[in-house]
Amino acid sequence: MSVRGDVHQRALAAAVRAVLARLDAHAGAPAEPEEPTEELSALDTLCSCFGLSSFERSIVVLTAAIELDPSAAARCAAAGGDPQRAYPTFSLALAAFEDAHWSALTPVAPLRRWRLVELDPEPSLTMGRLRIDERVLHFLAGVPYVDSRLHGLLSKVATPAGLPVSQQTAARSIAELWTRLDDDPQVQLIGADRRTRWEVAAAAARQAGIGLHAVTAEDLPTIPAEREALSRLWERESLLLPAALLVEGAAAQSFVAGLNTPVVVSAEDPVPGREWPRVTVTRPTADEQRALWKAELNGSGTERQLQDLVAQFSLPAHEIRTAGTSVRRDGTTAWQAGLTQARIALDELGHRIEPRATRADLVLPAPQRRILDEMVAHVRQRSKVYQDWGFESVLRRGLGVTALFAGTSGTGKTLAAEVLAGELGLDLFVIDLSQVISKYIGETEKNLRRVFDAAESGGALLLFDEADALFGKRSEIKDSHDRYANIEVSYLLMRMEAYRGLAILTTNMKKALDTAFLRRIRFVVDFPFPGVTERAEIWQRVIPPSTPVSDLDMRLLAQLTVAGGSIRNVALSAAFLAAEESAPLAMRHVLAAARSEYLKLERSLTSSEVAGWT
Asked: What is the share, in percent, of the chain residues with pLDDT greater than 70?
C-alpha cells in the first residue's frame, strides 16, 4: 500500500466512524466524538469536485460504511427502528444527519447525476436501498483505476519522451485554452498525422497536470440515451482521475458538445460547423528533424548524411524515433530505416515495386538517357542547390521534380521509373489514376490528396500510370463537368510541383496535351517504339546467359515489330514451352509464343516478320 493510499484509507475510516456514531446517537445510544483528520483525503477531493453538501457527504460515507464496517448494517437497522432495513436509505439519512435537504434525492443533484450512489426505488424513493458505486468506493480508499465500464472503449495515451519545439508550443496552447475555457473546454487539434496529434495532446495534458485518454468516434454509441450515459460517466471519471479526453474523428460533435471537461477533438481537417478554438500541429521543421536524427544516431551521422536524410524524408518525430531504434537494434542504415517508416502510409494506396532493374536493362536512345541522368541529378542534389546555394528562397514554388513519360504500351516507361528509383535508393509506388478518378465532383482531388500526403513523408518515386484517364477529360469548357475535369488536372499538377519527391506521369496521348500543361512539367521523355537494332538488343538482354539455347538468331527475332514489353512476354512464354519439352530454347518455341502474343494484341504475324525463320 502506498503512503498516500494509507492516508486516504485512514481518513475514510475516521469519516465512517463519525457517521456511524451519528447513527448511534439517533438511535439513542451514547457515542464518543471522533477526532477530525487534518490531512486532505480522497473524500475531501470527491466533495470538492462534485460540490457535495455536508449532508450529501454523510450519505456517501454511510454507503461506504456498509462495505467497510461489519457493524454498519445492524446500526442502520437500529437507527431506523426496522430490523428488516439493515441498509442505508434516504429516509434514514434525512432523520439522522444534520443539514438534511430533500433536494439531495433528485436525479439532477450530484449524488444521482454523477452516480456516486445507486438507488433501488423499491419499495419507495426514500425507503429504497442506497449503494455506493464501486468506482467511487475504490477512489475513496485511494486505489486509482479507470472505471471498468470504460474498458475497451478508452485507451490511455502515453506522454512522449520529447517533442520538437514547434509541437511543444502547440501543446502549451492547448493547456492554456483548457485553463481559460471554464465552460465547454473543447479544443480542435488538426494537422500532422494521428499519432503526432495524440502525442501533442498528451504533452498538453501533462502540462495541465492531468492524464489523457482517447476514444475514436466510431466506437461511440449511436443511441442518444447510451451516448448521454457515457457522457456522464466520462465526466465523472475525468474528475476522479483527473484526465482529459481525446476524441479522434470529427463525427463525434454531438457527444463532445455535451461535455464540460477538457476535450481535444483530433482530426486531419477542421471540424465543420463548430466554433471551438483550433490548434494546428505541423510536422517538425527541417532543423528539428535534423536534431531528431542526430540524437537517434548518437552522433554517428555526418552533417552531409543528416542533410540528405532531411532532404529526402519528412518524418514525424515518432517515426524518426522508430527508425533510430531500428538502426541501433538491427544494424540497418538510417536511409533504409527511413524508407521503411515512410512506406507504411503508401502501402495501402499504391502498388510498391521493389527496384531491381538497372541501366543495363534499359534500351533507350542517347537523348532519352541524358534526360534520365538529369532527373537523377535534380533529385540527388536538390538539398545542395535549394538549401546550400539558396535557390529555394529565389524560386519558392515549383521545386518538385516532375516528369512526363510518353510512349505506347511496352516501350519501357515503368522500367525506366524502376531504374530511377533504384539509382536514387527510393521506393517506387505505381498509382493507377484510373482508380483515383471519381465521377463525383471533388472526390478525385480528395483521392489525389491522400496519395500525396502519404508520400510526402518519404519522397517516394510516384508513377501515375494510366494518366490518360485524366488527360482525356481535359477539354474546352462546355459544362460544369468539363470545368471540374480541368480543375482535377490543375490540382494534380499543383501537387506534383509541390511534391518533395519525384513524380512521373505516363501517357500515350502526348499530342493531345496542350502547351500550358507541358510548361508545368520539368522533364518530358519520349519513349519511341524500338527499331530493329533496339529490338535485337532487347532480345539479347531478356534471355539470361544460363538459358540453354539452340540456333537463336537475334537478327531474325528483331523482325518481330513489337515493343519491349511484348518481347519480354514472348521470351518468357517460349522458355516455358522449351522447358516443357526438356529442350533448349529454339526459334520454333519463340514462333509459337509470338503467335499467342500477337493473338492477345489482336494482330497477325506477317510473312516479313518471320522471313528466314524456317
From this structure: 93
- Which DSSP state fits 508? S
- Start-end of H helices in 258-316: 286-296, 303-312
User: Which of 589, 536, 585 lies closest to 559, judged by CA?
Assistant: 536
Q: Is the dihedral of CA 572, 575, 580, 581 positive or negative?
A: positive
d(CA 585, CA 301): 51
Q: Give the Cβ contact number of residue 327 at 10 Å.
A: 22
Distances (CA, A) of 292 to 335, 382, 502: 14, 21, 25
Indicate whether 201 belongs to any domain. yes
- Indicate the SS3 state at residue 86: coil
CATH label of the domain that carries residue 178: 3.40.50.300
Considering all CA atoms of the chain, what is the largest pairwise distance in Å, rounded to the nearest integer?
125
CA distance 287 to 296: 14
pLDDT of 583 over the 90 cut: yes
- The number of helices, as runs of H, and strands, as runs of E, in the chain is 28, 16
Are 88 and 59 within 8 A, CB to CB? yes
CB of 272 closer than 8 Å to CB of 304: no
Over residues 10-29, mean pLDDT = 90
Helices (H), 333-479: 334-343, 366-380, 382, 391-395, 413-424, 433-436, 443-455, 468-471
For residue 131, the SS3 value is: strand
* In a shared domain, residues 134 and 250: no
- Cα separation, 311 vs 309, in Å, equals 5
Task: Give, as one character, the DSSP assignment of residue 362.
Answer: -
Task: Give the residue among 128, 284, 129, 136 at the shortest CA–CA distance from 196.
Answer: 284
Residue listed under C-alpha cell 501533462: 206
How many angstroms separate the CA atoms of 416 and 418, rounded?
Answer: 5
Q: Of the residues 280, 311, 334, which one is the last residue of a structural domain?
A: 280
467, 433 contact by CB (below 8 A): yes
User: What range does the domain containing 572 cover?
Assistant: 532-600
Amino acid at 82: D
- Per the CB < 8 A criterion, the answer to whether 495 and 448 are in contact is yes
**What are the two backbone dihedrals, phi and then psi, of residue 525, each rounded to the nearest 5 degrees?**
-120, 120
What one-character DSSP code corresponds to residue 262?
-
- Distance between CA 365 and CA 582 in Å, rounded? 38
Three-class secondary structure assignment of 475-492: CCCCCHHHHHHHHHHHHH
CA 487 to chain centre: 28
Q: Work out the average pLDDT over 6-24.
A: 90
Contact between 237 and 147 under an 8 Å Cβ cutoff? The reply is: yes
Strand partners, 525: 405
Evaluate whether residue 249 is within a structural domain. Answer: yes
Give the cell for residue 211.
Answer: 492524464
Query: For residue 398, what are the CA distances in angstroms to 334, 379, 406, 492, 519?
Result: 28, 13, 21, 13, 11
Say if residues 82 and 76 touch (Cβ distance below 8 Å): no
Query: How many structural domains are present in the chain?
Result: 5
Do 504 and 404 meet the contact criterion of CB atoms below 8 Å apart? yes
Q: Using one digit for the tens of pLDDT, what is the confidence trace for 155-172?
A: 999 998 889 999 999 999
What is the mean pLDDT of the segment spanning 74-78? 93
Same domain for 211 and 111, yes or no, is no
Question: Could you tell me which of 473, 486, 477, 480 has the C-alpha nearest to residue 512?
Answer: 473
b/e for 459-498, b at 16 or more Cβ within 10 A? Answer: bbbbbbbbbbbbbebbeeeeeeeeebbeebbebbbbbbbe
For residue 11, give the C-alpha cell: 481518513
- Distance spanning both ends of the chain, measured CA to CA: 94
